[in-house]
Amino acid sequence: MRFIVFGDSKGKNNGINKKILNALLKESKKITSTADFIVILGDSVAGGNNSNALLSQLNDFRNIVASYYETKPLIPVLGNHEVNINPTDDTFEKLFSKCYADLNVTDYLDEYNKTVYYIDFDNYRLIFLNSFHYNEIHKITNNQLKWFENICKQSNKNKLLFLHSPAFPTGAHLGHCLDLYPKCRDDFWSIVDKYEIKLVFSSHEHNYSRRVVSGKNDIYQIISGGAGEKLRNKYNSKNGVIIPPIAVYHFVVIDLLPNTIEVSAIDLKGKILDEFIIHLNDN
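^ that's the sequence the OP posted. Answer follows.
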């Protein structure tokens, strides 16, 4: 099974950087026309405080992706711009869910408007969390944290995790991601470590990076936020970083195979920025 990941495609043309998004999708089709689905890591659009404008932006974004991958599911992560940056209620969360009403998931957490869910594929479980739920911004806590641990505990499938706000930012948003609340971040990451999540994908920082976070297990964190937003390469947090922030527009291709996970980060000209393989039998 193969899928594509990218994040942070917002811009000024109805909330989208359409020039970069189209270039990204066009290049991805050259490389991986057989992708089974697409994961967008949040901040797909600029959003705002107008409900109709937000729905227009989200539907426009979906239509652009569908023009390249007409029959392929688009699997979304909720970012801060989809909920007007600093939400005080779930109004925009509900609109986001409405836009993705056709999303088929294995199970989800009721209180979060179907923005917290997982999807099972053969021997893999893909888990999607919401790091911008109102009153829980830059946090995975309360019922979401309990749910996350329960759905990790109940399955021996290989697990991949997706959320917008990185647990360990490299610099562009250092201090303004899950690291804003270190105790909450560490409680969350202890579950990631305990249940041997194979890969954690985030965006929010507008670049590509890869680091390994060492605990009981070595966990790879990928930041992929280069689909249209203004790029940043600030680099301050270096512990465990394998690929420092690369300020270039890109997408990531993931192949989930029976015994390996293969990952390639690719720019708009088809150049490979990073590639690595996780051997599942070694973990």
